[in-house]
Amino acid sequence: MKYGVKSVSGVPGKAMIELGPVKDGSSPIEELMELTAQSLTRLEIKEHFNVIKEIGRGKYGRVLLVTHRCRGTPMALKVLPKASTQLKGFLREYCISLRLSSHPCIVGLFGIVFQSNEHYGFAQELVVGRDLFAIIKPRVGISECAVKRCAVQIASALEFIHRLGLVHRDIKPENVLLLDTQCRHVKLADFGLTQKRGTLIQFISSTLPYMAPELCAMVQENGQENPKAPPLSIQPSLDTWAFGVLLFCILTGFFPWESCTSADSFYEEFAEWRQDPGTTEIPTQWMRFTPVCMEMFARLLTPEPNDRSTADVVKGYIGKDWVRPKHANLLVGDRGGVSTMTPLSSPCRSSPVLQ
Fold first, then answer.
1. pLDDT, tens digit, for every residue of 30-72?
2. How far apart are CA 109 and CA 99, in angstroms?
3. CA angle 322, 247, 354 (to 5 degrees)
4. CATH fold of 26-124
5. Quick one: angle between helices 236-252 and 144-163, nearest 10?
6. Is the pLDDT of residue 337 over 90?
7. DSSP 325
8. Are 261 and 216 in contact, with CB atoms under 8 Å apart?
9. 307 and 102 in contact (C-beta within 8 Å)?
């Protein structure tokens, strides 16, 4: 079981992101935030909940396994210290999570939100299981059947999120919770970075493997006073790209690259192939996939965001083979080359790559 705790001010680990204003006016989420702020209950955690244990911790808060003292209901209580949490950011995460919780592939909420003397908090559905990252075998991945089951459910959740005018912004295996080990039922979690479509990103301080090229272009170098690119409007295409990277990771046990920049040779090879797939040889690390699977990846991982497909495009490929039989769970390509990509292994959890 894993519950991540992200910054509610837009700072995922070391990859700080500075946000600007939204293009247009208020939204239903903002109206719900205002109403929630007016009725925010004050209570002390131990007076209303039996704290069983801590099940998640991050720089910005904790997630506790608790039972309700009156009803005995088990739940996951997400608590963030007031000293380092802005009320507006906390309300945004709660209201977005509440708005999305009706979807069967998104973690549910109990509608319990409060403040104590030292914390803000809200109660989530308790998912008794592990996250998707925990079942990925480094250098191997997970079975194609399980990947497809995950893909359909995550795509459905993203379609729902995007239809409501929101962008998750943190799609990765750690934020997909499993209700069973075969991925028959998964739930998307952690909406601490979710924003309204059209919110502007001014700059980022570092890159992560799941970030799209247009987002990586926003990185601000050390000592640089002004961003090198104009503000970037947050769009669902950012989630689509991250979803494509996630699928590669769980199929192979590797990241396809460390960042979508010219300094990353693995990304550069893929970008060259994507620009001219007819005459450019497929990079070695992608050779395990069937032509139809590469067609799917090409649609999800289109460098130009306006040409990028929506996440639900994967549904049209579920009935087709994704991995070549002789390359299932292997790294060796058709030319005999062995990939030297960064593996998804436990030491990477504390590296900037997986923060």
1. 899 999 999 999 999 999 999 999 988 876 789 999 999 999 9
2. 9
3. 150
4. Phosphorylase Kinase; domain 1 (3.30.200)
5. 170
6. no
7. G
8. yes
9. no
- All structural domains of the chain with their residue ranges: 26-124, 132-350
The rounded distance, in Å, linking the Cα atoms of 260 and 298 is: 15
| Residue 168 DSSP code | -
Amino acid at 66: V
Q: What is the pLDDT of residues 155-170, one digit of tens each?
A: 999 999 999 999 999 9
Query: Are residues 220 and 15 in contact, defined by beta-carbon separation less than 8 angstroms?
Result: no
Determine if residue 137 is labeled as part of a ligand binding site: no
CATH number belonging to domain 132-350: 1.10.510.10
Alpha carbon dihedral 175, 179, 181, 183, in 10-degree steps, equals -70
Find the helix or strand (DSSP H, E) in which 121 lies: strand 119-124
Give the residue numbers annotated as catalytic, written as ranges.
170
pLDDT at 149 > cutoff 50: yes
What residue type is 325 in one-letter code? Answer: P
Q: What are phi and psi of 167, to 5 degrees?
A: -130, 125
**Cα 109 to Cα 94: distance, rounded to the nearest angstrom:** 9
The side-by-side arrangement of strands in the sheet containing 232-233 is 17-19, 200-204, 232-233
Question: What's residue 10's pLDDT?
Answer: 33
**Which pLDDT tens digit goes with each residue over 161-214?**
999 999 999 999 999 999 998 999 999 999 999 999 999 999 888 899 999 999
Q: How many residues are listed for the chain in this entry?
A: 355
Amino acid in the structure at residue 196: K
Question: What's residue 195's pLDDT?
Answer: 94
